Predict the structure.
Amino acid sequence: MLMANERVNQVSGLKSITNPHPVRVVSVTSGKGGVGKTNVSANLAISLVANGNKVLLMDADLGLANVDVLLGLQPTCNLSHVVKGECSLEEVIIKDTSGLRIIPAASGIQDMAELSHIEHAGLIRAFSELSFNPDILLIDTAAGISDSVVTFSKAAHEVLVVVCDEPASITDAYAVIKLLNREHGLHRFRVLANMVHSAQEGIDLYKKLMKVTDRFLDVTLEYLGSIPFDEYLKKSVQKQRAVVNAYPRSKSAIAFAKIAQKAGQWPIPDSANGQIEFFVERLLNYKNNRSAIIYE
Ligand SMILES: Nc1ncnc2c1ncn2[C@@H]1O[C@H](COP(=O)(O)OP(=O)(O)O)[C@@H](O)[C@H]1O
Ligand SMILES: [Mg+2]
């Protein structure tokens, strides 16, 4: 018989102890590449740690400028090794000097949906047995509107859309919101304006995006704020350090701290919805459900 605080995972049949602080899963997306998604993910994650949150940052982007490159880390194994049973999830997770934990990018996670049931169960077990219970799981997704962006955003509780003042950024942010809304039923998105030259520029960007979504989609966009264009952020990228660590008094670092304060107050999911292994299960089930629909 199950105790009150135990749950059974539907796929793996594993029993897990309910985490008293469910994890908030935030997918960071943008449509267009180069708008600062990875910098936003890493700096927001470190700022959330500084505010006392336990944070896990998952790199779901296989592009060149990965989180590990940005933070000057050298991962030896990744999630694909966990799937193959070659190492444990604890071995994959890198802890940086600020206390942030990182799951480095892996080719395996792009094709998570192709994994066998045994591999699924192994991955869910790896997450459910994690001794570290994060409060927040941030996911730096790939650029574009690939299946992997959809998969992670659907499984997340919050979708944060990063935009900057370039026509292609607005168009591509709209495209990703439209896809997630029309095809996948997501209705609420948070917007963060990056590389702005004034606070007003950020608000104007948000309004520009809202003008099109209000007209064509059934979505709510919530404005999270803006990060200024900052030469110190560029310098920190060269140094392979997060700007909040390398230049904590720079204007972008101060803005990240403010954004982290706000993000730290986002609603906490209910405990069933907030278990990390259930997030992984949602992630893995997405494509199976989809192919079931296609072949019906
Ligand atoms: N707030 C900012 N101020 C100045 N430059 C920025 C800022 N954010 C990003 N950049 C620049 O944009 C580049 C791409 O950022 P990155 O986070 O790798 O984007 P993405 O992950 O969206 O491709 C960085 O290397 C940096 O030079
Ligand atoms: Mg990136």
In short: The CA atoms of residues 193 and 202 lie 5 Å apart. Residues 1-19, 290-296 have pLDDT under 50 and may be disordered. The two ends are 36 Å apart (CA to CA). The first strand starts at residue 6 and ends at 8.
